[in-house]
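Can anyone check this?
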Amino acid sequence: MQKTLIGLGAILAMLTLAGCQTAQGFGQDVSTAGQVIQQESAEAM
């Protein structure tokens, strides 16, 4: 029983870490896209 709980805890920890990295990567992509849009609009003026 204890091994099962430890295994489940390890799986949950890995999923949590993977989720954080995915959200961080998405935020960086959105930020980069926003910077490109700002640069293009500044050049158009």
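Reply from J.R.: I decoded it. Helices lie at 2-44.
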